[in-house]
Write a structure and sequence with these properties.
- This protein is of the alpha+beta class.
- The chain has two domains: about 15-165, Orthogonal Bundle (Arc Repressor Mutant, subunit A); about 170-340, Trna Endonuclease, Chain: A, domain 1 (3-Layer(aba) Sandwich), CATH 3.40.1350.
- About 35% of the residues lie in helices and about 15% in strands.
- It has 13 helices and eleven strands.
- It has a seven-stranded mixed beta sheet with strand order 6-5-7-8-9-10-11. A two-stranded antiparallel ribbon has the order 1-2. Strands 3-4 form a two-stranded antiparallel ribbon.
- A hairpin with a 7-residue loop joins strand 10 (about 310-315) and strand 11.
- Helix 1 (about 15-30) packs across helix 2 and helix 2 (about 40-50) packs across helix 4.
């Protein structure tokens, strides 16, 4: 199950909980979410709430009445989000509603395109979006004693999921870890960076470092040496706190904490403090914080967020490092980032 902790974290508690409820419902309907960023999940959930006309937890029970009576168009959905979910989305981005936010729910028959205008062209701006009858029936049972029975009866689009998952199986990146263990990562920019970290960064700068943990966009714990992590004092049970890659150099007695950044989560001061207080709180070894990017252009987008006393590595220039420090080059730093 996808972890929604990072979704809508800046919203009020009431709105955040409502967005999480929408995501749980969509997940129950079979909507794949593992490859979506927190913001993409948030947008999909809010747009789904707009189609359902749900502004509070009490509104779910009214879903069946909305099948034919509530079919908002793209710009109406944007106005709904701005009015009810603390957004300020430009109506000029109306095409994202169809192409991104409702794309998979529509393919799976959860949301019905052109519900108020059957036969309308895909690009017809007057078409609306409504709920399918099956979706409305399931939604109406949410938070009631009838929920499990409704879930059991809901016709998940297994044909879509079979083809979707088969396509993902084809698009894999195979990575051989230094100890010979092979892992397959989902294809995509984020995991391309992770593969480059294992294949290029660690051989160049790892001093024989052993990979102890590597995550994946669809599987947080794709490889995890729990015993070794515990041996070097890392708390690997803090769900969602581990970085993308953890490695340990026995030669240098250094722990490598590495984040692969494509669309989020660089090693900024807050992230370093978070890791120090959770994963690293009992670790006696020197820690090397590394943020990795594909290219210099990608790095430029995040440059002003990188924490001091950390390192930056670019897959496009694998033999070089960027050092965010003033007293030394590559290596762990004794200074406590929290106190800096």
């Amino acid at each position: 199950m996808t972890n929604f902790n990072k979704v809508a974290k800046n919203k009020t508690t009431e709105i955040k909980n409502l967005i999480h409820s929408a995501l749980r419902i969509l997940q129950t309907m079979g909507v794949p979410m593992d490859e979506l960023t927190p913001r993409r999940l948030e947008k999909m959930a809010m747009v789904f709430l707009a189609v359902c006309d749900v502004k509070s937890e009490e509104d779910w029970k009214n879903a069946p009445s909305k099948v034919n009576s509530h079919t908002p168009r793209s710009r109406e959905i944007i106005r709904y989000l701005n009015a009810n979910f603390e957004e300020s989305i430009s109506e000029g981005s109306y095409d994202d509603i169809r192409r991104k936010d409702l794309y998979i729910p529509a393919l799976m028959g959860i949301v019905v395109k052109s519900a108020n205008k059957p036969g309308a062209d895909t690009n017809d701006g007057t078409r609306g979006f409504g709920l399918s009858e099956h979706a409305a029936k399931l939604i109406a049972a949410y938070n009631t004693d009838e929920w499990q029975a409704a879930v059991d009866e809901f016709p998940v689009d297994s044909d879509f999921l079979e083809k979707f998952n088969a396509d993902r199986e084809i698009k894999k990146i195979d990575v051989i870890l230094p100890d010979g263990f092979s892992v397959s990562l989902d294809a995509g920019p984020h995991n391309e960076i992770q593969a480059a970290i294992v294949n290029q960064f660690l051989p160049n700068f790892g001093y024989g470092a052993e990979v102890l943990y590597i995550g994946d966009t669809s599987s947080k714990n794709i490889y995890k040496n729990t015993d070794k992590l515990a041996e070097i004092g890392l708390n690997s049970e803090e769900r969602g706190m581990l970085p993308d890659i953890v490695a340990f150099s026995n030669e240098k007695k250094w722990v490598y904490i590495i984040e692969a950044v494509h669309s989020s989560n660089p090693l900024n001061p807050e992230r370093c403090i978070e890791l120090q207080r959770t994963v690293l709180k009992d670790c006696p070894y020197g820690v090397v914080f590394v943020t990795a990017f594909l290219t210099r252009k990608d790095f430029a987008k995040w440059c002003d967020q990188i924490a001091w006393e950390t390192e930056v590595w670019l897959a496009s220039n694998p033999e070089h490092m960027i050092h965010f420090n003033g007293d030394k080059f590559f290596g762990p730093h004794k200074e406590n980032i929290e106190e800096a």
